[in-house]
Amino acid sequence: MDFISDLVKAVIALFIIVDPFGNIPIFIGLTENIPEAQIKKVYNTAVIVGMALLLVFAFAGTAILDIFGLTIPSFEVAGGILLLIIAVRIVVSGIHETVESPESIGAVPIAIPLLVGPGAITTTIITLQSYSTEGAAIAVTITVLAVVIVLSLTWVILRFINGIHKVLGKTGAVVIARVMALLIAAIAVQYILTGVTHFIA
Hints:
The protein is an all-alpha fold. The protein has one domain (2-15, 23-200). It has helices spanning 2-18, 24-30, 36-68, 72-93, 102-115, 118-130, 136-159, 161-200. α4 packs across α8.
């Protein structure tokens, strides 16, 4: 029962940070000029890349940061700047991506930093460390299952985006995407401020 309880807590924490529901209008805005037949490839790529990144950072995150002399605050600042640029583009002129393949936009910016940003990376690393006192095997199992469950749920949610897009219509989707971009900008600024605050401290 303790294992199930810990797993549920880890899944809920990561799901809140990844926030696929909150990002739906942004996803719609990013893919509005992509043929419907290719949108599935975009989201498949986003989920696969996101899952791979989280698993890599879960097991080697601390080591990777140490090798390059990086810190979590540096990810917060970098991710915040990238998110802010995306938000400004959506608010000012909308998103008009011209990419060679749907996989490109699926990887950046949908997989990272929208789904897998500094918050998700930090949460995954902390999850592994938090349950390490219960044994390495249990900590690894909880972390891997949490990542797989959350990204699988995200994939299911993304599969229904076309239906949501049809209900909203093109104009409605653009309007909502731009309104949500303001919230994304605020989150981006918060990431930057948190990262800078950590550096100053």
